[in-house]
Design brief:
Oligomer: single chain
Distance between the termini: 24 Å
Largest sheet: 18 strands, antiparallel, barrel
Number of strands: 19
Protein name: Alginate export
Strand content: over 45%
Shape: globular
Low-confidence stretches: 1-13
């Protein structure tokens, strides 16, 4: 029976179907990723005397793809849950807020130019998809989060050997309306907040242009996102937002540069953000970042970096976990009083053979703006991670982080009786097989 399942009729069916309608390659994949966490002050300083949290979350994904003549298709369904949230015999405890089964990706990419043109490609990608550009600081798939991030969008792509130009468009609605386009960005159910706890956008447009250089690349991003306008309904207690026609418009633009010479790698980025955010506030902010990395050998490299964000800047739809400490104190779901951030960090990476890698980061965090009655120092975080690849489809990862916080951080995080020592640890098992059928 085992031989029949893996090598027999079920795996032949996609190939037989494709042979009836033209040549193509069919891909099947799966992922099972568990993460066991000990949280003792993750996300914000813990209250003194509070007990640590301990749980295991699981991501289960099934992926399918088709690559045929002038057409690509991608499909990913996933289920995200915490071990034990359902009864062991029948699902009677899961509520809509806990229901983690969803369609993560469903897209088609159509090649608009003829296949005989090898150095110029124009294509249209439509549907639910991940958006990832440059270092994923402003647009990323947030893969660390078990549910990840995706967009319902249309993407026009023009690519040559040296140039990449992408234009994207998204327009969100809650349902098929009979009239009007009023959008509720916070409907009932399990809707994850955007970066820094902001509301979902109603519409989004962006242009991304990148040019390959001799030793690196230079890219430009211009992004505009619109949020539903609202008015405060004070006739109810507590007062609530009432969504109405009209939008608040925000624009973000800037450059990203990366280059390498011998074993020295450096990146730099600068972005400006203006307009009106999802809370109806006028903003004028900026982000500046720089990173320098030296590879001393094939096994060892060290890096030094700095990030600066003004109080008004919001890092859009990126991957904060990758940049501002693994304990997710900044620019995740928990705001920090809109004070902006200074982050100065050291990084060490070590690779022992082809299977084992380890890394350590140390961050010194400061507020970008003054905090009444307090200094700007927010704390220091140390992150240690290790990854062991058992096979091409099985990997293990573990990490430990410690955050030494200050009264200034407790003030802007609004945590009373906050502990100065905070810890977080995790162990991940990632199983990700893939099969290709021609």
């Amino acid at each position: 029976m085992k031989k029949w399942f893996y090598g027999g009729i079920p795996w032949m069916l996609p190939g037989l179907l494709l042979s009836q309608h033209g040549y193509g390659q069919f891909t099947l994949g799966a992922q099972l990723r568990t993460r066991t966490e000990l949280r003792d002050g993750q996300g914000a300083p813990r209250t003194r005397g509070a007990s640590p949290a301990f749980f295991t979350s699981q991501r289960t994904r099934l992926m399918a793809g088709l690559n045929s003549y002038r057409l690509k298709l991608g499909l990913t369904v996933q289920d995200i849950r915490v071990w034990g949230q359902d009864a062991s015999t029948i699902n009677r405890t899961t509520t809509p807020d806990n229901n983690g089964f969803m369609l993560h990706e469903a897209w088609a990419e159509i090649l608009l130019t003829d296949t005989v043109s090898k150095n110029r490609r124009l294509s249209l990608k439509i549907g639910r998809q991940e958006l990832m550009y440059d270092d994923s600081r402003l647009l990323g798939n947030l893969d660390w989060l078990q549910q990840g991030r995706r967009h319902d969008a249309a993407l026009l792509k023009y690519e040559t050997g040296a140039w990449t130009a992408h234009a994207g468009l998204a327009f969100n609605q809650n349902k098929e309306n009979a009239s009007g386009t009023v959008y509720n960005p916070l409907p009932p159910g399990n809707y994850a907040a955007n970066t820094n706890g902001g509301p979902a956008y109603k519409s989004l447009e962006f242009l991304y242009v990148s040019r390959k250089l001799q030793q690196g690349s230079l890219s430009l991003l211009v992004l505009s996102d619109q949020f539903p306008a609202f008015q405060i309904d004070s006739t109810v207690t507590p007062a609530q937002k009432k969504w109405r026609a009209g939008v608040y418009n925000r624009i973000t633009t800037g450059l990203y540069y990366t280059s390498q010479h011998d074993r020295l790698l450096w990146t730099a980025a600068g972005y400006y953000q203006g307009g009106t955010n999802g809370n109806g506030q006028t903003v004028s902010g900026a982000l500046l970042s720089g990173y320098l990395q030296q590879a001393w050998s094939r096994q060892l490299s060290t890096g030094l970096g700095a990030d600066f964000t003004t109080p008004d800047f919001d890092p859009l739809y990126g991957t904060p976990h990758k940049f501002w400490g693994y304990m997710d104190y900044f620019y995740v779901a928990s705001p920090f009083a809109g004070k902006g951030l200074q982050d100065y960090y050291l990084r060490v990476k070590w690779k022992a053979g082809s299977r084992f890698t380890a890394g350590a980061d140390v961050h010194a965090f400061f507020s970008a703006a003054a905090i009444d009655g307090y200094n700007k120092r927010l704390g220091t975080e140390a992150d240690i991670t290790a990854t062991y690849t058992l096979t091409s489809v099985v990997a293990f990862e573990a990490g430990y982080s410690h955050f030494r916080s200050t009264p200034s951080l407790a003030k802007i995080k609004q945590v009373a009786n906050a502990s100065g020592n905070n810890n977080w640890a995790y162990v991940t098992v990632n199983i990700h097989p893939e099969w290709r059928i021609k």
